[in-house]
Amino acid sequence: MTTLTRADWEQRARDLKIEGRAYINGEYTASVSNDTFECISPVDGRLLATIASCDAADAQRAVDNARATFDSGVWSRLAPAKRKSTMIRFAGLLKKHAEELALLETLDMGKPISDSLDVDVPGAAQALSWSGEAIDKIYDEVAATPHDQLGLVTREPVGVVAAIVPWNFPLMMACWKLGPALSTGNSVILKPSEKSPLTAIRIAALAVEAGIPAGVLNVLPGYGHTVGKALALHMDVDTLVFTGSTKIAKQLLVYSGESNMKRVWLEAGGKSPNIVFADAPDLQAAAESAAGAIAFNQGEVCTAGSRLLVERSIKDKFLPMVIEALKGWKPGNPLDPATNVGALVDTQQMNTVLSYIEAGHADGAKLVAGGKRTLQETGGTYVEPTIFDGVSNAMKIAQEEIFGPVLSVIAFDSVEEAIQIANDTPYGLAAAVWTANISKAHQTAKALRAGSVWINQYDGGDMTAPFGGFKQSGNGRDKSLHAFDKYTELKATWIKL
C-alpha cells in the first residue's frame, strides 16, 4: 500500500507530463496524418492529452521497421541469455517508474490508484521478468531416429507480432503479450486501446532504455477500425494476439483469412459462473469473494464472477451476506488510496452498464443492491456495484458480458443443474466452485467448460498457470510456458548421417 495521500497523487497528476505520440523505430513521432484524438480521464472528465491517431500509413511504417529489425537479427538472433538479462532490466524499469505508471493508469482508465500500484504495475513487471527468466531454460528436441539419421525439432521466433490489448488492464495485458513475444525474439507492434493508451506509449521508451533495440517494440495508438484493422490485414504481420470482446475477436479471424492467414490468438469475453454449494466450507468467505469478484476493477474484468449460482437451500441465508459484503465496495475518487472502486473507463461504457441495469428491470429481475450512477458532481463516470436476484439464465443480464459491476443471482437445486446453468453460455473463460466435498469439487470442475476453474476461492493462479478460454472466450493461452507456443514456429530438420 502506498504511503502517498490523495493530495500527493493529485499534485503529481497536475505535474505529470504525458506523452501522446506513437513510438516507431525508437522514436516518438506524430501520426503520418497528424490526426489526434482526446484522452479524457474518467476520474473527473478532464482532458489528459491529445493522442496520435494512427492509421494504415503508420501501420506500414511500423511493420516495415519491425520486419527490418527482425531480419537484421539484432534481437531475433541474440543469445537467449542476453535477451533474458534485457527483459529483466525492462521489468526493473517498470518497477523503478511504478508510481508514474500507476498514476497514468489510474488517470487514463479510472481504476483505484492502490490497485494500479499494488496489482497492475507489479503484475506487468513480473510478466516481463518471468518470461525473460524462462527463455534460456527452454530446450529444443532430438527426435527418436534411426542410427543413420538425426532429427532436430527447434523453435524459432514467428517474426512480426501485432498485439492488440484492452482498456481494463492496459499495462498488465500488454506485458502478458510482450513478455513471451519479446523473449522469444520477435519484433512487436503494440496497439493499445484508444480508451487507455498512456502506459503503453510510456513503456516503449523504457524498453529501449533497457537495451531492446529500436524497432523491436513499436506502439501505435489509435482506433480499432483504422490502425487495428490495418495491422490485422497486413500481409507482413505473422501473428496477431488480442484480448478484448468476442465480437472483435471474430472480426480479426475474418481479417486473417482475407490476408495472409496470419496466426490469430484470442482472449475474448466471459460470463463466469461462481457456484456456491450448500456445503461450502466458509460461507462468509464465499460471500466476501462473490462481492469482490464483481466489484473489483469496477467489474471491468473478463473473468468477473458476474453469475452467482447459489444452491437454493442456502440462498435466503447467503444472499444477504453478499449484499452486506458489497457495502464494503463503494465508488470513490481513484486517487484516494482508500478507494477500492473507481470510475468506469468512459461515458460510453457507463451508459452501456446502465442500459444493462435497465434490461434487468425490464426482464423482471429484482434489484437488491446498487443500480444507479453515482458521484455525478465529480464529472466522472461512476456506477454503484449492483445485484439482481431472481435472475433466469435466459435473461440478457445473465447471457451477455456487461463489463461492469452488475451481478446476477441464480438459484439451483442440484449439482447437475448447477453445471447445466454454468455451461449454458457462449463463453468459457473461468468458473469457481465452493464446496467442502473434494469429489464434488473435482467432478464439477471437470464438467465445467472453462479455461480456469477455482475451488473455494475466486481468481486464483499466477504466472505459472496458463490463462485463456474455451468456446467463444477464445483460443491459445497467456501466462506460463504455454504462452511461448503462440510466438514461435516449430521446425523439423532431418539430417542424413
Description:
The chain is α/β, with parallel strands linked by helices and 497 residues long. It has two domains: 21-268, Aldehyde Dehydrogenase, Chain A, domain 1 (3-Layer(aba) Sandwich), CATH 3.40.605; 273-460, Aldehyde Dehydrogenase, Chain A, domain 2. 39% of the residues lie in helices and 20% in strands. The protein has 15 helices and 23 strands. The strands form seven sheets. A seven-stranded mixed β-sheet has the order 14-17-18-13-12-20-21, sandwiched between helices. A five-stranded parallel β-sheet has the order 9-8-7-10-11, sandwiched between helices. Helix 2 (56-72) packs parallel to helix 8 (224-233) and helix 5 packs parallel to helix 6 (170-183). It is globular and about 70 Å long. The model has no long low-confidence stretch (mean pLDDT 98).
Write down the domain tally. Answer: 2
User: How many DSSP E strands?
Assistant: 23
The CATH topology assignment of the largest domain is Aldehyde Dehydrogenase, Chain A, domain 1
The CATH superfamily of the largest domain appears as Aldehyde Dehydrogenase, Chain A, domain 1
Uncertain segments of ≥5 residues (pLDDT<50)?
none
Helix content: 25-40%
CATH architecture heading of the largest domain: 3-Layer(aba) Sandwich
Strand order of the largest sheet: 14-17-18-13-12-20-21
Rg for CA atoms: 23 Å
